[in-house]
Write a structure and sequence with these properties.
Length: 599
C-alpha cells in the first residue's frame, strides 16, 4: 500500500534562527558516556577513565561536540556512582585524578568539550559527613548536614512522614544510637545508601560551590545536575500520598488524547512526568541555580549547567533555564513521546515556544542510562512512551521495527534547532538487553521492589564483533553479560558500511553541522497526511513518516539523507517508506501545489 504524494502547502514559523553570541552549548550534540560500560582498560570487567580516553577518537570521528560523563567519583557504587563518597576524587575502579586530567586534556585536544555529573541531592552513606552525622547527637551540626528527624509514634517508631523512595519502599531509615537503642530517622529519596543533604544549611551550599570550582579549575566545560528538582523539600515535610517514581512511571498520556491538542497550548502537549509532591520542584531550588550561575560565570560565558529535572508541565521546566540559572534542561517530554506525528509536533512546538520565552536553547534526547533504549521502546506495541524496564518474561520488542523507527526519530531529532543528547551505543543502533536474567541484574531499585531495574540499557558496548566481550575488555570480562546478538552491532562490523546505523549517525551529524541546524529556526510545513510530520529548518525540509504506509514524495524535493533507503520507481517517482524520516532540499521555489513560505 502506498499513498499518493501529500500536498505540501505552507509553512508556519515556530521559531527564528538564533542570533547574537552563540555559545557551544546552544547547539551542541553531547554524547553521554556511562563510564562503567564504555571501555575497560584494565581487564576487570568494569569500564574506566583510561578506557574512555583511549576511545575518544570514536567520538570525534562520530562528529559530536562534547561528552557528558556519568559519575566516576569515589563511591561504594550502591547506585553505580550516583552515591558519591568524595566529590573531589576518582573511584579506584575508574582510575585516578591524573586519569581524569588526561581524559580532559585528550578530549580538548580533539575539540570535544567535557561535561561532568554533579550529584548534589544526596551523598553516599560512606561520605565522611554522613559517618560523622551517625556518630553525632541529634541536633548537632553534623546531623544538620542531612535530613535527620525524630520518628512519629510514642517511641518514635514510625517514620517522620509517609514519603516513599523513588526506588521503592519507605524514604526514611531509622538509625541506631551508640548504646544500641533506636535513634532518629534520616531521609533518602533514593536508596537507603543515598542520604539526602540539607540544602537549607549554608555549609552544604558552600561545599558545592567549592566542588564546582574544583572541577572548573581542572578544566571541565559544564555539569549535568543530578535530580535538579529535588534538593529543596517543602517546609515541614508534609505527608504526601503520591508515589515518586522518577523513571518507571514517567509516562506520557495516550497519544490520541495528546493528538487532539496540537495547538501548542499549555496542557495538551505536556507529558505528565509524575513528580508533583513536597520533595520535588520547590521554588527554593532556583536560588541555588542562580548562585551556581554566578560561580560558573567566574570562569567565562562558555561554561554550562544542564538540569536533570523530571518536572512537568514544560513551563515549570523552563524556570530552570531562565537567563540567570542553568543553561539547559533535559527535555524528557520529548523522550517520553510516542512515534506519532501529531504528538511529536505538539511536544516539539511546545518545547521550543516555552524555551523561547526564557531565551534558552531547547534540548532533545531519546535515550539515557535510566530509560529503555529508544531502539527498543519504539519496537514495543506502545511505539515509545513507555520507559519502563522490559524483562525476559515481558512481551519482547520487534527489534527490526524498533531500530527502523529509532533511526527515523533520531533523524527528526537531529534536524531540530538547539542541543541534542546521544547515549552511548545508540549510534550503533543498540537495543535494550531485555533478556538479562534476573540474577545478574544489579540496579539497586530491584532490591527495593522498584521493578526490573535499569541494567538493560547499561550493558557494556560492543566494539569488535570477534573479540572477547566484543572488545569491551581485553580479558573478556564484563560486569553485565552482553547478549550474543550484540556482536552484530559492534563498531567494527559497521564502520565503512553505508547502510549501517553508525555511518548513518556520522552523516547526519556532519550534515547537521554543515547546514547549521543547531542554530537554525523551525517552521512547520503543512503536509496533507495525518502520519507525516513536515518541518523546515533553514533550507532543509524534513518529512517524518510515522505511519506504516509509504508516501510518494512531492515534486521539487531533492533527497539528502534518509533514515532508510528511499524507494525509486521506474517512472521516477520516489517514495518515503513508512517509519522513516527524510532530509531534503528544495530544488525549486515550490514543492507540491503551492510555494513554500510563510502564509
Ligand atoms: C538520577 C540518575 C539516576 C540515579 C538517580 C539518583 O536520576 O540519572 O541514575 O539513580 O539520579 O542519584
Amino acid at each position: 500500500m502506498s499513498a499518493t504524494a501529500p500536498a505540501i502547502c505552507t509553512t508556519h514559523p515556530v521559531s527564528v534562527p538564533r542570533t547574537g553570541t552563540l555559545q557551544w552549548w546552544h547547539t551542541a550534540v553531547i554524547y553521554q558516556v556511562y563510564p562503567r560500560s564504555f571501555a575497560d582498560s584494565n581487564g576487570d570487567g568494569l569500564g574506566d577513565l583510561p578506557g574512555i580516553t583511549a576511545r575518544l577518537s570514536h567520538l570525534s570521528r562520530l562528529g559530536v561536540d562534547a561528552l557528558w560523563l556519568s559519575p566516576f567519583y569515589t563511591s561504594p557504587q550502591a547506585d553505580h556512582g550516583y552515591d558519591v563518597a568524595d566529590y573531589r576524587d576518582v573511584d579506584p575502579i575508574f582510575g585516578t585524578l591524573a586519569d581524569a586530567d588526561a581524559l580532559l586534556e585528550r578530549a580538548h585536544q580533539l575539540g570535544l568539550r567535557v561535561v561532568v555529573d554533579l550529584v548534589p541531592n544526596h551523598t553516599s552513606d560512606a561520605h565522611v559527613w554522613f559517618q560523622q552525622a551517625l556518630a553525632a547527637a541529634p541536633g548537632s551540626p553534623e546531623r544538620e548536614r542531612y535530613m535527620f528527624r525524630d520518628g512519629r509514634g510514642e517511641a518514635g517508631e514510625l517514620p517522620p512522614n509517609n514519603w516513599e523512595s523513588v526506588f521503592g519502599g519507605p524514604a526514611w531509615t531509622r538509625t541506631t544510637n551508640a548504646d544500641g537503642t533506636p535513634g532518629q530517622w534520616y531521609l533518602h529519596i533514593f536508596d537507603v545508601r543515598q542520604p539526602d543533604l540539607n540544602w537549607a544549611n549554608e555549609e552544604i551550599r558552600q561545599e558545592f560551590r567549592d566542588v564546582l570550582r574544583f572541577w572548573l579549575d581542572r578544566g571541565v566545560d559544564g555539569f549535568r545536575v543530578d535530580v535538579a528538582h529535588g534538593m529543596v523539600k517543602e517546609e515541614g515535610l508534609p505527608d504526601w500520598a503520591g508515589h515518586s517514581a522518577m523513571i518507571s512511571e514517567a509516562e506520557s498520556g495516550e497519544h490520541d488524547e495528546v493528538a487532539e491538542s496540537d495547538d501548542g497550548g499549555d496542557d495538551g502537549a505536556d507529558v505528565d512526568l509524575g513528580n508533583a509532591g513536597p520533595m520535588w520542584n520547590q521554588p527554593g531550588v532556583h536560588e541555588i541555580y542562580r548562585d551556581w550561575h554566578a560561580v560558573l560565570a567566574e570562569y567565562g560565558a562558555d561554561k554550562m549547567l544542564v538540569a536533570e529535572a523530571w518536572v512537568s508541565p514544560l513551563p515549570e521546566l523552563a524556570k530552570y533555564v531562565r537567563p540567570d540559572e542553568m543553561q539547559q534542561a533535559f527535555n524528557f517530554a520529548f523522550l517520553a513521546s510516542h512515534w506519532h506525528a501529531d504528538e511529536l509536533r505538539s511536544v516539539i512546538e511546545h518545547s521550543v515556544q516555552v524555551n523561547d520565552t526564557v531565551g534558552a536553547p531547547t534540548t532533545w534526547v531519546l535515550s539515557n542510562h535510566d530509560v529503555v533504549r529508544h531502539a527498543t521502546r519504539f519496537g514495543l506495541p506502545s511505539a515509545g512512551g513507555n520507559v519502563e524496564p522490559v524483562g525476559p518474561d515481558d512481551l519482547q520488542p520487534d527489534v527490526e521495527l524498533g531500530l527502523r523507527r529509532a533511526r527515523a526519530a533520531t533523524l527528526l531529532m537531529l534536524a531540530l534547532p538547539g542541543s541534542a543528547y546521544l547515549y552511548q551505543g545508540e549510534e550503533l543502533g543498540l537495543p535494550e538487553a531485555t533478556r538479562l536474567p534476573f540474577d545478574v541484574r544489579q540496579d539497586p531499585t530491584i532490591a527495593r521492589g522498584g521493578g526490573l531495574g535499569r541494567d538493560g540499557c547499561r550493558v557494556p558496548l560492543p566494539w569488535e564483533a570477534d573479540a572477547p566481550s566484543f572488545g569491551f575488555s581485553a580479558t573478556g570480562e564484563s560486569w553485565l553479560p552482553q547478549p550474543q546478538e550484540y556482536g552484530r552491532y559492534a563498531l567494527d562490523a559497521q564502520k565503512g558500511d553505508p547502510a549501517s546505523t553508525y555511518e548513518f549517525y556520522r552523516r547526519a551529524l556532519r550534515m547537521r553541522r554543515d547546514y547549521a541546524l543547531g542554530s537554525g529556526g523551525l517552521a512547520w510545513i503543512d503536509v496533507d497526511h495525518p502520519d507525516v510530520l513536515g518541518l523546515a529548518n533553514g533550507e532543509l525540509v524534513v518529512l517524518a513518516n510515522t505511519g506504516s504506509e509509504q508516501i510518494r514524495l512531492p515534486e521539487g524535493l531533492e533527497p539528502l539523507l534518509s533514515s532508510i533507503q528511499l524507494d525509486q520507481h521506474g517512472d521516477g517517482a520516489i517514495f518515503l517508506p513508512g517509519d522513516a524520516t527524510l532530509w531534503a532540499l528544495r530544488t525549486r521555489g515550490e514543492v507540491g501545489r503551492k510555494p513554500f513560505g510563510p502564509d
